[in-house]
Amino acid sequence: MNDEKPAIKKLHALSSENRRFTFTLPLRHKIRIGKRSYEVKLKSDEKYGTHILWKNRKYPVEIIRSRQNRYEILFNDISYIFTIETPFSLKRLKVLKQSTGKAETELIKAPMPGKIIDILVREGATVLRGEPLLILEAMKMQNEIHSPVNGHVTRIPAKGGTNVMKDDLLIEIKVE
Amino acid sequence: MKIRRIFIANRGEIAVRIISTARKMNIETVVVRNATEPDALYVSLADIVFDNTEDPADIPVFLNIDRLIDIALETSCDAVHPGYGFLAENAYFAQKCIENNIVFIGPSPDAIYKMGNKTIARELAMKQGIPMAMGSQGNIGNEEEAAAMAKNIGYPVIIKAASGGGGRGMRIVRKPEEMEKMFLIASKEAEKAFNDPSVFIEKYIENPKHIEFQILGDTAGNIVHLGERECSIQRKHQKLLEEAPSSALDDDLRNLMGSMAVRIAAAVGYYSAGTVEFLLDSERNFYFMEMNTRIQVEHPVTEMITGIDLIEQQIRIARGETLAFGQKDVRIQGWSIECRINAEDVQAGFAPDPGKIEKLILPSDSFVRADTGVRSGSSIVSSYDSMIAKLIITGTDRKDAIRKCKLALDRVWIKGVKTTLPFFRMLVRNPKFIDGSFTTAFIEKDLDKYYLNSEYEEMLAAWLATKLFEDENLIGKSPAADNGNNSDMSPWLLNKRINQF
């Protein structure tokens, strides 16, 4: 262990919807709910694979992706994305957020692999929430991808007639 | 007519399903082994396997009529079962089988053709006095014609592919301004999916229930119906959950709709198993939609409440046997619900999530029937559908079936791919599903979240993420301080790491 750094006493897991879960270190295999605390066991065996045992029930878990402090976890067939912050990095994050203001960029990503049939907007165009942006063909179905926000189209990495993978960036919209 | 050996021109769970009934009837089965999934479950269960892994053709063998006929002849099969999808509703395939003295386990090519062409089917239904939504008499040539027709019928209207099915080439148009765009999309989609761009228009019934009747007919002209299935839980016209019977029907309506289903089947001299689909509106008006001339994915719910093995009936009818029971002998008992467990990402708009199924454990309770074409180690490949298993739960009544459904859903264990399980866990707890008042608009309109998770589940996932972070960064095995460069760790590695705990 590094003696020069102060010991980290807590870690915060921030969900993609900004919910915060705080755990004290070293991490215990017990979680407190109300007045009782319950044991969490991380296990792996031939029959079930990796799973968590909690209150006498098994839940399947999987690590889908991890990059630096960002973890995508599949828990009981639902995926969650968390960034793990130390008390120090959490403070820095708050400062950063305040200084950048509120001009957000909405990234429109391919919800499924497919082919771009048509792009219905141009760079610089003003789009309204619900407006169709492009047509993506997947599984022989033509799907309209709609804008989730009101804003301006700033960039269109998608090209008509090309194939895209799931999560490929299609269009960037500056939110108004 | 004797049937000793059946060639199953299909794969997946339906191939497995057909094998199980054939075995019961002492009939041999032949299946095709393909390079895309050489170790599939159905391959290991069949009596005879035709190795097609070296097939150089571009199209999948299940769509290659000449190739399938060759295989059936080469393996000395006296009958072909087409299953569902692929060529199951291809009149030319049925015709080719007959020409080669192979029994086609399904209806006549003529019946397939007439019901497969929605325009002809509509005309037939109209002649028989079956209630129908107002619509175009035939196909619509261009967007101007479509706009004129829609004005006549009144918006909203629905554009449908003449050779369609499964939601492809189907578009709802609510305003005249949308007509041109939607017409082109529907027509393009129809051409891609069915090799036929022709479309027609009919009045769009808002928020109906999807009610379909299972019918069985023999070659002597006897036709019965086995009651209805409700398939209103669908997303973009893809069914997710089906049940039988439907809470929307009483005996009077069941008898009336059932007799209409029998009538339209009789109009094309229908034999074998078939399904007549209706839309039912809130005023109990029903409208003929289409007839499916094949065994359906959701056939098990009907089997569970009638005690009739539909695949067995198909084979018996194909052998020339007459139905051993009449309409009055058909008894409906209990309630059955089918959940389609697919490899789909519910959180990403039900996008297919193909991959290897690392673990698969299906419930073994007596009230659960699990029809599947995969096992632990199988892969869901992107070239085929994303079905993992059909969970068929049967109870004494609807309430009991839903209760058992909840139990069964928690006893399914799948690792390796994302599945529709979280959707069903949410659905069986939804008040509108429980009271039966849902319509085909349910998923799109009445739900704001497509999956169920409790607060604790997210917290436990957060705990796991924190645990991983702690192990990687704070428990000083590796120079973890500098994780900026080599941070893209493979999930495989992490899994291994988890395994060591």
Question: Would you write up a description of this structure?
Answer:
- The complex is a heterodimer of chains A (176) and B (501).
- Chain A is mainly β.
- Helix content of chain A is 8%, strand content 55%.
- Chain A has 1 helix and 16 strands.
- In chain A, a hairpin with a 2-residue loop joins strand 7 and strand 8.
- The model of chain A has no long low-confidence stretch (mean pLDDT 87).
- Chain B contains 17 helices and 22 strands.
- In chain B, the strands form 6 sheets. In chain B, strands 13-12-9-10-11-14-21-19 form an 8-stranded antiparallel beta sheet, sandwiched between helices.
- In chain B, strand 12 and strand 13 form a beta hairpin.
- At the A-B interface, strand 1, strand 4, strand 5, strand 6 and strand 7 of A face helix 8, strand 16, strand 22, helix 16 and helix 17 of B.
Topology (SSEs and partners):
The complex is a heterodimer of chains A (176) and B (501).
Chain A: E1 10-15, E2 20-24, E3 30-33, E4 36-45, E5 49-54, E6 57-67, E7 70-75, E8 78-85, H1 87-100, E9 105-109, E10 114-119, E11 126-127, E12 132-138, E13 141-146, E14 151-155, E15 163-164, E16 169-175
Antiparallel strand pairs in A: 1-2, 1-8, 3-4, 4-5, 5-6, 6-7, 7-8, 9-16, 10-12, 10-15, 11-14, 12-13, 14-16
Chain B: E1 5-8, H1 12-24, E2 28-33, H2 41-45, E3 48-51, H3 65-74, E4 79-81, H4 91-99, E5 103-104, H5 109-116, H6 118-127, H7 143-153, E6 157-161, E7 171-173, H8 179-194, E8 199-203, E9 209-217, E10 223-235, E11 238-244, H9 251-267, E12 272-280, E13 286-292, H10 299-306, H11 310-318, E14 335-342, E15 344-345, E16 351-352, E17 355-356, E18 359-361, E19 368-372, E20 379-380, E21 387-395, H12 398-410, E22 413-415, H13 421-427, H14 431-435, H15 442-446, H16 455-474, H17 491-499
Parallel strand pairs in B: 1-2, 1-4, 2-3, 4-5
Antiparallel strand pairs in B: 6-7, 6-8, 9-10, 9-12, 10-11, 11-14, 12-13, 14-21, 15-16, 17-20, 18-22, 19-21
Helix pairs in contact in B: 4-5, 7-8
